[in-house]
């Protein structure tokens, strides 16, 4: 299997290719027209935005101790994962279909508002209705609905943010991707803190869960402010103007964007990035088959007891962040190797299966922990590589579309992995 070259019809002519060339790092470019990212503000903003859009999901999944206590007859981890991913997948398909009729600015702001609403309802419902009582399954269904609402918000924010970062030099995509990993690390350390400080009774679990959601609301509010500031930064404004110029050039060449022209453009983008997309999909099928369901429900430790899944999730998140940060030091530019490595991660499935049914040594804490760290490291690095490389295979004015389509593949992998996780260890 090879990586297809970009569709010839989507290639700019020599003059426009030179005009629209995006340097890898604007701060190191010799072109004096490109503004510098003063104090790395744009990088920091995109990092925080990356942290923000995954924080609602991480808040729900990290509060699993409390939700499992409230609803003991449900498999909370896996239900949340399937609902979140499937809803997000459907919404992404709709966003791609109607992308040309909306702007990323509107989609991202709408998604952030949806996140705030979903995160706000959970602690309010707990204070006024649930009150720590077990078996309030009406509240459980509302909670599942709020998870679905977060799936909608994720589709609006993630697809558009990845698309917007794809229009910028690669360091900003790396910032977004590293931010997603930082979100997991933040919530994991919050969980360790609350588990150590609060008693593991109904009151302690309740206080811990509400803290996750309060932190999530605060970060969402920060993201709203920063996102609306970002376009005013000179470096972001410069690349936005480049995109407008590219769109105007294309409009003069091909005319107004009709429905048929949009379909043709979308098909060309899909054809260009499809192998990157399939690799991203399989990357997350493997990851979601194992994390978090297998780690939280299927492996156990007599020594670490209920700390075991907490430490495993933290290990995964920390190494996911390490992997996503490594591309700032070394970026694998050979797409064939990155794609092949994504498929090679299928080997994790028999290895983890051995941790359940293999020799006694494989069932101990050390092999499972090492595998989990390696799972996070490879997931992080390969995700970052594929996210950085993919938008650069198309013209600047189509980079946002390429980013959204890539996120569609990613969420398809997440949804598929969430479903398969119910069955593969049986």
UniProtKB/TrEMBL annotation:
Alphabetic keyword roster: Membrane, Transmembrane, Transmembrane helix, Transport
Keyword hit for Transmembrane helix: yes
GO cellular component, one term: plasma membrane
Transmembrane segments: 43-67, 79-98, 110-130, 137-157, 172-190, 211-230, 275-295, 307-331, 337-356, 368-389, 401-425
Sample GO molecular function, one term: nucleoside transmembrane transporter activity
Membrane topology value: Multi-pass membrane protein
Keyword Transmembrane: yes
UniProt-annotated location(s): Membrane
PANTHER family: EQUILIBRATIVE NUCLEOSIDE TRANSPORTER, EQUILIBRATIVE NUCLEOSIDE TRANSPORTER 4
Family stated for the protein in its record: Belongs to the SLC29A/ENT transporter (TC 2.A.57) family.
Protein name (Swiss-Prot/TrEMBL): OLC1v1028250C1
């Amino acid at each position: 299997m090879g990586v297809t070259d970009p569709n010839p019809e989507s290639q700019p002519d020599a003059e426009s290719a030179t005009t629209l060339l995006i340097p890898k790092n604007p701060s190191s470019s010799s072109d004096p027209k490109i503004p510098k990212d003063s104090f790395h503000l744009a990088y920091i903003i995109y990092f925080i935005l990356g942290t923000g859009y995954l924080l609602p999901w991480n808040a729900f999944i990290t509060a699993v101790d409390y939700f499992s206590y409230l609803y003991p007859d449900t498999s909370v981890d896996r239900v949340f994962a399937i609902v979140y991913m499937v809803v997000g997948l459907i919404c992404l398909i709709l966003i791609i279909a109607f992308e040309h009729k909306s702007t990323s600015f509107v989609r991202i702001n709408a998604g952030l508002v949806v996140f705030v609403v979903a995160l706000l309802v959970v602690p309010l419902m707990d204070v006024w209705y649930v009150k720590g009582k077990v078996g309030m399954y009406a509240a459980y269904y509302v909670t599942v609905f709020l998870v679905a609402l977060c799936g909608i918000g994720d589709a609006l924010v993630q697809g558009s943010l990845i698309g917007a970062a794809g229009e910028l030099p690669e360091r900003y995509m790396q910032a977004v991707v590293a931010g997603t990993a930082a979100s997991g690390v933040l919530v994991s350390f919050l969980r360790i803190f609350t588990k150590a400080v609060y008693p593991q009774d109904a009151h302690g679990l309740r206080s811990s869960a509400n803290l996750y959601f309060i932190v999530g609301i605060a970060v969402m509010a920060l993201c709203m402010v920063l996102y609306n500031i970002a376009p005013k930064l000179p470096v972001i404004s410069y690349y936005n103007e480049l995109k407008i110029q590219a769109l105007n050039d294309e409009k003069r060449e091909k005319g107004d964007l009709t429905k048929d022209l949009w379909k043709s453009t979308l098909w060309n983008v899909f054809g260009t990035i499809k192998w990157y997309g399939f690799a991203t999909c399989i990357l997350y099928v493997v990851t979601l088959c194992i994390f978090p369901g297998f780690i939280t429900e299927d492996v156990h430790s007599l020594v670490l007891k209920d700390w075991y899944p907490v430490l495993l999730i933290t290990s995964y998140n920390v190494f996911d962040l390490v992997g996503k940060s490594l591309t700032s030091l070394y970026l694998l530019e050979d797409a064939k190797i990155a794609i092949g490595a994504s498929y090679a991660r299928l080997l994790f499935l028999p290895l983890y299966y051995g941790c359940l049914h293999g020799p006694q040594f494989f069932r101990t804490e050390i092999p499972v922990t090492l595998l989990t760290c390696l799972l996070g490291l490879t997931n992080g690095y390969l995700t970052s590589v594929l996210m950085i490389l993919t938008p650069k295979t198309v013209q600047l004015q189509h980079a946002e579309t390429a980013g959204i389509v890539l996120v569609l593949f990613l969420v398809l992998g997440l949804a598929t992995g969430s479903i398969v996780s119910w069955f593969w260890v049986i």
